[in-house]
Every structure is written in C-alpha cells, then in structure tokens.
Design a protein that fits this description.
This protein is an alpha/beta fold and 425 residues long. The chain is 40% helix and 16% strand. The strands form 3 sheets. A 7-stranded mixed β-sheet has the order 4-10-9-8-7-5-6, with helices on both faces. It has a 4-stranded mixed β-sheet with strand order 1-2-3-13. A 4-stranded antiparallel β-sheet has the order 11-12-15-14, with helices on one face.
Amino acid sequence: MSDTEALLERRYRALGRNAPLFYERPVHLVRGEGARVYDADGRAYLDVYNNVPCVGHCHPHVVQAIARQAATLNLHTRYLHETVVSYAERLTATFADPLDAVMFTCSGTEANELALRLARFQTGGQGIIVSDFSYHGNSETLAALTTCFPTPEPFPAFARGVPVPDPAHDQGSEEELAAIFAAHVAAAVRDLQANGIQVAALLIDTLFANEGLPRRVPGFVEKAVEIVREAGGLFICDEVQAGFARTGDAMWGHQLTGATPDIVTLGKPMGNGHPVAGVVTRREWVDGFGLAANYFNTFGGNPVSAAAGMAVLDVIEQEGLQDNSRRVGAHVRAGLDRLMAKHPIIGNVRGQGLFFGLELVQADAAASPATAETKRLINLMRERGALMSRIGRHDNILKMRPPLVFTTEDADLLLSMLDDALVDL
C-alpha cells in the first residue's frame, strides 16, 4: 500500500468515508506556491480552482504578516487593537455608500447566517428568497436554504427558490430575460405574502456561480432588487466567489450591476485561506443590531486575522491583481473561444475575469448536457497536472477560478492541457 493509500484509509477512519474529496484518484497535496500546488511525490499541479488563496498559495507578504502578528499578540476582539480598526476602515473604504461598517466572522457560512439575522432584525420579516440552484453555507438555516444539492434539512416554509434564466438556453432578448427573472422574484414575494410571511431579504451571488456562470444580463439584478425593496426586504449580496477583484472590472461583483446591496457577505478569500470573513453594511444597522443582540464574535477579525486581511489588500493593490484578472482573464477567454471552434463538445464559453467556464454538450439535436464527459475531463486534467471542478444544474460546466496571480504563461499551459484532454475525450 502506498503512502497516499495508507493516508486515505486513515482519513476514512478519522473523518468518515463520505467527507468529500476531489477526483477519482485523490490528490495528496503537501505544499503550494503562487498558482501551483505540489503532491507528496513532488509533482506540480496548476491550480485553476482555488479562490481561497486568492493572492496565491503561501504568498510571502501574507505569511509574514500572519507570523509577525501571531508572534506579537492574538486575542479575541473585545480588546482595542489598532490593526483590527485599521483593517475595518480600509476594507469598508472599498465599498460605496452607505456600506460603511463591518462585522467580522470566521467563515462565509457564519457571515451569511449573521446577514440573515441582521436582515430579519432590520425588516421585521422572516421571508428569504434565493435562487433555485444555490449554496450559501452549511449552518442549519443555510443548509435548509441550499438548492443545488440535497440536504437532510427540508426547504423551509419561510423561503422561496426562484429560477435564474440562462441566456445560452432560454429564449428572449436581454430585456425579456431580465423581466422573466423579475417576474419569478415578484411571484415569490406574492407567495410569501399570501402565506402571511413578510419578505426579509433576497440572497444571491450576482455572478450566479453555482448556477453555472450565466452571461450577465443588464438589469437582471436591479429589477429583482427593486421588487424586493418595494416589499420591504433587503438585498444581501454573497461576494465569497465574485469578490476581491476576481472579475477584473471591479473589486466586488455587485459593482458590475446597478444595485448597491444593503448587506454584503465576505468569506474564504478575505485572509488568503486564514479563517476570516465578514458582513459589510450600514453603521447605524450594525449599532442597532449590536445593541439589541449584544453581538460579538470571539475570534472573528482577531489581530492575526486582521493582519492577514490587510496583507491581502496590500497584495491586490501593489501587484495590480485587479488589472491582472481583467487582462489574463481576457487572454483565457480568447483561448477558450478558439477551443470551442475546434471541439464540438464545447457548447459555450462563460465567465469574466479570472472566473471562467466551458459548458460541455452532447452532439444530439438538443445539445444535451455532457455530464459524464465533464466529470471525465476533470479527471483527465488532473492526470495532466491541472486542478478544476464543475458547476451548473447538470454538472456539465467546467469551473475554473484560479488564484489572482495566474499569468498568461499559466493560461497558455492550461489551454494546451485542455486542448490535449479534449482530444482524448
């Protein structure tokens, strides 16, 4: 039995056989640097999946910031600390008014849970609207709201799931598709109200990543948000996947729309893998909720977490990573378009900046989802040395979301590997 097989058996015993692992042959990773990770045999893999280390695996500036603060002081957040305050000021300065205060947490799940509490406190309502193929966390409430895979928790009576039109498949102009989504949201509002449930919030990721990264339609988000606000609800924007300059054209995904959220939730990329997350909203709402709930978070936004978050913002700014996302993302997109012209299994190219995907389809008249082929392609790419995943209602869309330090050379290697794997497929 190899070392990897022995470790896998130990994992089964310690963590259970159903704790998820990527790939048919799990990858045993031992270190990372930039856009690459390395396995126990020393083999390098191009990381085209992980947005958690958003400024690159083990970025020296982030590592040094964490180590320096950990060697100085790390306590919970009920003591005054300069770094915590300075980070909160710098982070909120990246948002438009009236988003001017932050509540720190330790995970994206915790941030979304807190956002729901805040929305319900502020509106007096309980009703939550999500898309009908979404994921926002794994607490009991958020697991129940999950619609992209089965959970033991039943979908709650206080919630409604709405379908998100996909311009690649649904008929109609952009205006018509935006109107269709708005109509779905309006119907959800009416149904909640008919059952005596006041609307508290619409909770979405404006890139609709889990839904398959459908092409962005002007007015799509804005019309839906307007309907929810007219009903007394708030707009919660989940920026865990879309935020921190990933799109290239904006720091935050919602800034590509005409709708400023009432509440923004942040997660995994915030500390480049260090467990820090947060909720950004209006200062007066934070004050009111904190007074009523006596809210505190023992380690959310502690001095080490704040140092990690500050270092991430340093790297994004100093290394020009938003521009890199835009420039390299466009390079990848052009290469994926060329692959689509060559390989009939590619139905369309999706995404923006350093978040992109390929929808794979069958050769039949209906261009049916090529689900099995997508799973096989991911494993073929793993064998060639590139890590990625899949998304979408039919699991037939390649999900590629590399660290923001991804270069044009990395992109060319990815495209070459994809071309080769598609030939084998």
